[in-house]
Write a structure and sequence with these properties.
2 copies of one chain form a homodimer.
Chain A (H helix, E strand, L loop, with lengths): L9 H20 L6 H12 L5 H8 L3 H13 L3 E5 L7 E5 L1 H21 L5 H23 L1
Antiparallel strand pairs in A: 1-2
Helix pairs in contact in A: 1-5, 2-5, 3-4
The first copy, chain A, binds a DNA duplex through helix 4.
Chain lengths: 147, 147
DNA sequence: TAATTTTAATCAGTTATACTGACTATATAT
DNA sequence: ATATATAGTCAGTATAACTGATTAAAATTA
């Protein structure tokens, strides 16, 4: 198939790379019964332990009602626990369990495997450049969101 | 907010860049009454005129029943026309109309504007590298799909 | 201190989107 | 001539996130 306008656009190429990365990752996550979003929630909770549902949602841009379902789900799998925050009894302190940490560790290795598969055609130097470019773009996006 | 594991992952950064690109593009497309997917269909039809719904769907990975809705929608806006293919009366030849071409042209300029906005923090050289890296990744993905 | 407003989480119901599977009409293969 | 495969359609389903109302608790204000 000839090169299309679409295939010369950053937007299209980004979307394709993202889809490929995500679909491969989701497939690897399947046995852990997690999707990419839920993996993200777990990872956030490990790095920012005892966050509230609101804090997780704000950081990962997940709607409050959607957060309820995610935490319900993760709690059912015993990957996290809700504990009432004694300092603010409206909110929960959400903690990742031992089991959750184990799954998360596996998930991280799956993510790294996926990334290396999808980026296998790039040289080490290109991979570095790619990361640094993506970080620059991310910084722009972050700046835009502050306003 | 400190850098998270997530923010060091290609998958996460790709997803964020893609989301930002897409949401800004969708917003710009709003007055044309198109979303990114429908824009893609129009662009494909301009480059591969007289494709069938199946051919568009195969190229852009859109399900056959979803293609029906997209073409219904585009036809209602008079951006495309369905004409029975006399050589195979099961299928349609889908053609982009004059009006569709005008909207498409506008859409392309919006896409280029969006891309330049999102990638504004990159130098010209970095933008080139980014494109060439994304094309390499795309080639890998394509190869994987052939099998 | 009492009354008011704001906030975190929840829940029922809605919306958007794409999908499954059955069906029609036509074409291809046996 | 019969059987099988294909393009497109449609009704109904699944999924996922969202809207708006509600509860309980906290913060603000009077």
């Amino acid at each position: 198939m000839l090169i299309l306008f679409l295939q010369k656009s950053y937007g299209f190429l980004l979307a394709k790379a993202k889809e490929e990365m995500e679909s491969r990752f989701i497939e690897k996550l399947l046995p852990l019964r997690l999707d990419a979003r839920q993996f993200g929630v777990l990872q956030f909770l490990e790095e920012y332990p005892n966050s509230s549902q609101k804090q997780v949602g704000d950081a990962l841009q997940i709607d409050r009602t959607t957060m309820v379902s995610h935490i319900d789900f993760l709690e059912e799998l015993q990957y996290v626990k809700r504990i009432r925050n004694p300092k603010d009894r409206r909110s929960f302190v959400v903690t990742i369990t031992k089991r959750g940490q184990e799954k998360l560790k596996l998930g991280r290795s799956y993510l790294e495997d996926t990334e290396m598969d999808v980026l296998s055609s790039l040289t080490g130097k290109e991979q570095e450049e790619f990361k640094s470019i993506l970080l620059k773009v991310w910084a722009t996006i972050q700046k835009g969101e502050e306003e």
